[in-house]
């Protein structure tokens, strides 16, 4: 793995992160519908997290085991949220 | 790696996994005394309510009044009994002691991957135990809301009269969680990175698979409860309102967060006990374990399923009724992989040359008693039946018929089996057999009647059953169970005598007194610092017993395959 | 570790495996708390009236601070890989200072809100607000301490070769804390 792939321009990634921050703020304050705004804002957050994980945490060059260790909790949390919706969201 | 000098670095602040394993063992055994003492007082109170409980005159007011139990203290004892037994006895002995001691040895490594983290993990749980014990001495006494700490009871000090006791409980449990998270990190990293050459995953001893699965289950499940514990602590200290319904909070949220952890947790406790039994059966039947891969896959499936059954603890808590069906289904489903493992154990006995030294007796004892526990789980897991038996002694009997087998039958089986390796001495067989029979008979006599109590409607966690007319006819059952429990407690005396006596007077243990194949038996008893004078290379699986054409009826894992022979 | 090496195959260093394992449990912890927040918020009808009192701009500044600190942290890691102890020390110091700034801004935010009478008991929204951001701030503090220790070790030089790999591990933790905030920020401030 040569230097160029191992160390992408971290500053470029940072610039994207700042840009996404601005976009997220815009989505929140522009006149979108509430559901749309939440969706957009969350998508932006996911994109930022993806960038940090992939480039700063070097997930792009890590092995399957690391992906499994990082990915399993996320899946479990999705399951937890789904199971809790009837009780917590729709309670009497 | 040279051995550290000085008493403190060698025996107290040691990074050697064998020393740390022993430290966990002694912690667990010491806390078991407290767990047993609380059980004694609880059961005496249930059998002869309001009477003066023998041997308790020294406990001061307001807990006890000259041997008479205060109702609040009863709740505190019930809470501490569960908390101590699960978090400070079961996990330290099965995971902390057996896991720490055995894993590096069984994989041919010289120590854990992160020895200083290992040392930190022990001292963290030691601190946790001190914090928990301290809660007995604060104003208001220790936590009184059950080991499950449901709010609002646990949330508002005015409900139980307990203030700092509950906060200290939360702190102790949080420290215990941190300790086992650290331990789990070590278990996984060590097994992934430090296996001897030739030791692929499907040549690992089943105990290692079980410890690994338990570590993964714990790590993935404990987070939401840590979040919940933080929330409860904040409710109690800075005035947040997470779980207080009158202030907009939701008590059911706690139950979901707790049991999301609580259910995988019981398998965290179960699996190492199962692992001990699976190591012992082949050795005392002199034949390979039946269905090695099946057992591994079943364990993984059970582990995955364990994350989607938790609401079966909440069927009558006021959950959405539509949740009951899916959780009943998953709960019934999870009995399948465990049944497969039990069947594999039974099949492992079939056609074997069985001998019955003490480790084998305890392993068989596990099989018999866990079967009862597993089967009664099905009753609890079916929501319709659970509506009747939830919160009764049926549940108490069920979980003692699962937890006690794993901790005490599986754990003792492991202790008797590995004692020679850990301490370099043999235990006395006669005392061991006496211990087994008293434990087996005492345990069954204590807990089997509780199924009847439960079906008769006897509720859990009540201070005086005779306050209820419909429970009065059941009083003799309670008395019988208490007497049986006293036999069970007294039956532990042979073990204590044996354990400490043999340290001094036991016969010196050979490297491999049982004729077993796994790597820990291929070095001295106890192993030297660094475990193996020359690092071993593995050539076969762990259960090559009675191999056709082999010179002996066991072939250790590091023996090379003979020319033309078959390595597992 | 002096055991014979496992034959072939890429081996993940034990330290890195350990940190990812730890992060997995942290994902479950923060995830659990965030999940509870999201669900309770839906149940409670959105809590917009309470949520209106947090200041998204201050939080946006804090987001920028944390993002930048992730940049400096990963540059510290690159410096270690390049063998440059001095540059690593510089970037570690920048990360520490940015982390402290984050905490300072957070403290300023808390003092404003408390002065306006928004305490943890005021409403469920505020319970979650203080709980979430407080737990996160504690994690930031722990990261600052760890990074400061590494900065001191980099300055001192003695034993640096042993300590240097830990910059990557501390970095993983620090980026995780950043990722938590990346989700926290919109969920608390922008919804």
What is this entry, summarized?
In chain A, 79% of the residues lie in helices and 0% in strands. With 92 residues, chain A is mainly α.
Helix and strand layout, with pairings?
The complex is a heterotrimer of chains A (92), B (568) and C (191).
Chain A: H1 3-6, H2 10-29, H3 34-56, H4 64-89
Helix pairs in contact in A: 2-3
Chain B: H1 7-12, H2 17-47, E1 64-65, E2 68-69, H3 71-106, H4 115-134, H5 157-160, H6 164-193, H7 206-237, H8 251-285, H9 292-305, H10 321-349, H11 358-381, H12 383-389, H13 393-423, H14 429-455, H15 475-490, H16 493-505
Antiparallel strand pairs in B: 1-2
Helix pairs in contact in B: 2-3, 2-4, 2-15, 3-6, 3-7, 3-8, 3-13, 4-6, 6-7, 7-8, 7-9, 8-11, 8-13, 9-10, 10-11, 11-13, 11-14, 13-14, 14-15, 14-16
Chain C: H1 14-43, H2 48-51, H3 56-82, H4 85-115, H5 124-156, H6 160-163, H7 165-190
Helix pairs in contact in C: 1-5, 1-7, 3-4, 3-7, 4-5, 5-7
Describe this structure in words.
The complex is a heterotrimer of chains A (92), B (568) and C (191). With 92 residues, chain A is mainly α. Helix content of chain A is 79%, strand content 0%. Chain A contains 4 helices and no strands. In chain A, helix 2 packs antiparallel against helix 3 (34-56). In chain A, 26% of the residues are buried. Chain B folds into 3 domains: 24-249, Cytochrome c oxidase-like, subunit I domain (Cytochrome C Oxidase, Chain A, Up-down Bundle), CATH 1.20.210.10; 262-506, Up-down Bundle (Cytochrome C Oxidase, Chain A); 511-568, no CATH class. Chain B has a two-stranded antiparallel sheet. The radius of gyration of chain C is 19 Å and the shape is elongated. Chain C has a single domain (14-190), classed as Cytochrome c oxidase, subunit III, four-helix bundle (Four Helix Bundle (Hemerythrin (Met), subunit A)), CATH 1.20.120.80. With 191 residues, chain C is mostly helical. Chains in contact: A-B, A-C, B-C.
């Amino acid at each position: 793995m040569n230097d160029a792939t191992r160390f992408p321009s971290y500053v470029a990634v940072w610039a994207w992160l700042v840009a996404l921050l601005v976009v997220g703020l815009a989505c929140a304050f522009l006149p979108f519908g509430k559901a749309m705004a939440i969706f957009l804002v969350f998508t932006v957050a996911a994109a930022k997290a993806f960038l940090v994980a992939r480039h700063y945490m070097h997930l792009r060059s890590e092995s399957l085991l690391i992906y499994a260790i990082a990915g399993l909790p996320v899946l479990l949390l999705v399951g937890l949220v789904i199971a809790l919706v009837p009780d917590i969201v729709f309670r009497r | 790696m040279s051995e550290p000098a000085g008493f403190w670095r060698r025996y107290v602040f040691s990074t050697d996994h064998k020393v740390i394993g022993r430290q966990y063992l002694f912690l667990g055994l010491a806390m078991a005394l407290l767990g047993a003492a609380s059980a004694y007082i609880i059961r005496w109170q249930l059998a002869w309510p309001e009477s003066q409980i023998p041997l308790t005159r020294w406990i001061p007011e307001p807990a006890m009044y000259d041997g008479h139990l205060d109702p609040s203290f009863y709740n505190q004892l019930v809470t501490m009994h569960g908390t101590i037994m699960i978090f400070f006895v079961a996990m330290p002995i099965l995971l902390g002691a057996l896991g720490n001691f055995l894993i590096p040895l069984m994989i041919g490594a010289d120590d854990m991957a992160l020895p200083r983290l290992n040392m930190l993990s022990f001292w963290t749980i030691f601190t946790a135990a001190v914090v928990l014990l301290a809660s007995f001495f604060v104003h208001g006494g220790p936590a009184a809301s059950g080991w499950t700490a449901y709010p609002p009871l646990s949330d508002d000090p005015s409900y139980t009269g307990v203030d700092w006791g509950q906060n200290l409980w939360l702190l102790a449990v949080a420290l215990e969680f941190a300790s086992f998270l650290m331990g789990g990190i070590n278990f996984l990293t060590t097994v992934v990175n430090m296996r001897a050459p030739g030791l692929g995953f499907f040549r690992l001893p089943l105990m290692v698979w079980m410890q690994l699965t338990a570590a993964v289950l714990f790590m993935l499940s404990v987070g939401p409860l840590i979040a919940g514990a933080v929330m409860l602590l904040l409710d109690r200290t800075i005035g947040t309102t997470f779980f207080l319904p009158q202030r907009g909070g939701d008590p059911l949220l706690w139950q979901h967060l707790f049991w999301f952890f609580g259910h995988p947790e019981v398998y965290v406790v179960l699996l190492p006990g199962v692992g001990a039994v699976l190591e012992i059966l082949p050795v005392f039947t002199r034949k390979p374990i039946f269905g090695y891969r099946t057992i591994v896959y079943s364990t993984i499936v059970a582990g995955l399923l364990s994350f989607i059954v938790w609401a079966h603890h909440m069927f009558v808590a006021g959950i959405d009724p539509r949740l009951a069906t899916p959780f009943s289904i998953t709960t019934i489903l999870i009995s399948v992989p465990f049944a497969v493992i039990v069947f594999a154990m039974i099949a492992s006995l079939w056609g074997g040359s069985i001998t019955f030294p003490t480790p084998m007796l305890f392993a068989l004892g596990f099989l018999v008693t866990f079967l009862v526990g597993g089967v009664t789980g099905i009753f609890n897991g079916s929501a319709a039946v659970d509506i009747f038996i939830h919160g009764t002694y049926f549940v108490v009997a069920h979980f003692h018929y699962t937890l006690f087998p794993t901790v005490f039958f599986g754990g003792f089986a492991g202790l008797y089996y590995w004692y020679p390796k850990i301490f370099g001495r043999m235990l006395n067989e006669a005392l061991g057999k006496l211990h087994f029979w008293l434990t087996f008979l005492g345990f069954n006599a204590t807990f089997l009647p509780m199924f009847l109590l439960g079906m008769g409607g006897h509720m859990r966690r009540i201070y005086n059953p005779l306050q209820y007319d419909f429970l009065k006819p059941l009083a003799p059952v309670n008395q019988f169970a208490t007497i049986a429990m006293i036999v069970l407690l007294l039956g532990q005396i042979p073990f204590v005598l044996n354990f400490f006596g043999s340290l001094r007077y036991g016969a010196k243990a050979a490297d491999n007194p049982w004729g077993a194949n796994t790597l820990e038996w291929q070095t001295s008893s106890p192993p030297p610092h660094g475990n193996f004078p020359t690092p071993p290379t593995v050539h076969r699986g762990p259960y090559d017993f009675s191999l056709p054409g082999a010179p002996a009826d066991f072939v250790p894992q590091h023996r090379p395959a003979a020319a033309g022979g078959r390595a597992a | 570790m002096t055991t014979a090496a496992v034959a072939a195959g890429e081996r993940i260093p034990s330290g890195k495996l350990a940190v990812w394992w730890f992060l997995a449990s942290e994902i479950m912890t923060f995830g659990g708390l965030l999940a509870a927040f999201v669900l309770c918020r839906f149940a409670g009808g959105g809590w917009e009236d309470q949520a209106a009192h947090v200041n998204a701009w201050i939080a946006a500044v804090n987001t920028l601070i944390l993002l930048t600190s992730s940049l400096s942290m990963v540059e510290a890691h690159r410096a270690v890989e390049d063998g440059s102890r001095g540059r690593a020390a510089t970037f570690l110091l920048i990360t520490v200072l940015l982390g402290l700034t984050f905490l300072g801004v957070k403290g300023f935010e808390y003092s404003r809100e408390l002065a306006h009478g928004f305490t943890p008991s005021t409403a469920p929204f505020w319970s979650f607000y203080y709980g979430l951001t407080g737990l996160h701030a504690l994690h930031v503090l722990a990261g600052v301490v760890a990074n400061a220790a590494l900065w001191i070790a980099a300055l001192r030089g003695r034993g640096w070769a042993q300590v240097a790999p830990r910059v990557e591990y501390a970095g993983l933790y620090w980026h995780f804390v950043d990722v938590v905030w990346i989700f926290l920020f919109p969920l608390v401030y922008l919804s």
